[in-house]
């Protein structure tokens, strides 16, 4: 909905377990026709660096990649 305003969405999966494997994620993204990039972060570094404590957590970042909404 916001693509025309210069915004994009990316989902980052930091969860572990069989249901969160890259293979399962690929199937989920295809079946649900996700219109955004769906990434896997096994290290959980992205969640830690942004301070995510639960899933899902939503962040809006500005052009400088600073959090403007959490």
Question: What can you tell me about this protein's structure?
Answer:
By secondary structure, the chain is α+β, with helices and mostly antiparallel strands. 23% of the residues lie in helices and 19% in strands. The chain is built from 2 helices and 4 strands; from the N terminus they run βαβαββ. The chain has helices at residues 22-31, 45-50, and strands spanning 10-13, 37-40, 60-61, 67-69. It has a two-stranded parallel sheet. Strands 3-4 form a two-stranded antiparallel ribbon. The longest helix has 10 residues, at 22-31. The two termini are 19 Å apart. The model has no long low-confidence stretch (mean pLDDT 88).
Q: Could you give a quick summary of the protein structure above?
A:
The chain is an alpha+beta fold and 70 residues long. Helix content is 23%, strand content 19%.
């Amino acid at each position: 909905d916001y693509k025309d305003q210069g915004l994009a969405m990316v989902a980052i999966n930091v969860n572990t377990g069989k249901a969160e494997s890259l293979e399962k994620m690929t199937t989920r993204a295809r079946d649900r026709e996700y219109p955004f990039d769906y990434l896997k972060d096994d290290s959980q570094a992205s969640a830690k660096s942004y301070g995510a404590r639960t899933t899902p957590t939503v962040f809006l970042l500005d052009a400088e990649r600073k959090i403007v909404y959490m």
